[in-house]
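FIELD: query
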Amino acid sequence: MRRWTEALVVFVPCLVELVCTIFLVFLGCGSTLNWPQEETSPTVLTISLSFGFLYAFLGNISTLVSGGFFNPAITAALATIKTIPIKRAVCLIFAQLTGAVIGAGLLYFVVPDDNREYLGVTRVRSVSCLTGCGVEVLMTAALTLTVLLTSDGGQRTIDSSACMVIGTAVSVCHLFGYPISGCGINPVRSFGPAVIMNIWKNHWVYWVGPIIGAQLAAAIHHLINNFPVKTADELEVRGRQLKDKMEMPSFGLNISEHHPPIPTQVTTQGDSPSELATFL
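FIELD: result
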């Protein structure tokens, strides 16, 4: 019975992460597709808003069960700082990767051949691969810090407003990064379409960048939480304590400075034998 309970505790969050990742890739990558027969086509603004709203509502429906991350880079970072067990992190990442492939596969079969193009595959545009990787590092670090600082130790989102903040961060990252690197910031968002379309050019950028960025953000968050002084009031109190300690007088007095030396010999000149006997 205990084994079944432990398996259920791991299985349910993995199932939630799988379903959320399916929606993320299916709807998110679908928002990037062009429809030539339509008068309107997706823009950076519409794509940014689509991904932002996706993260917001998917976080709301999954936060109490799995933490609502559906991002292997963030999941690995949480395992590094021991917020979640390594075994659970491995299971969650496997579910996320599986969901990404399923979501991209569903999108491939739903969209007509003329409209598939790259199926939302992330590509480095007009910059070098190293520059694109650097952009992914910075954007993923910003997203991960937002997730950690608006959640209960990185384990679950506190409330709905926190999900909106995370969604806003995703939108801002897309507004800046989409014209540069396609704004991966989540390896599964790039992995699913790459598997279905078999396009792997510069794919390493969307793993190395987000993983480094998430690890960097997790280290910063860990340092902030374990820093001796966290607020201005605490800093002022510590400063006063240190000042009082430095001004405190020393109690290690030198006896020779305050007391005359103790005589080691008794002068007997002029003393009678009876007086010496009395003294001794």
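FIELD: remark
Residues 266-270, 275-280 have pLDDT under 50 and may be disordered.
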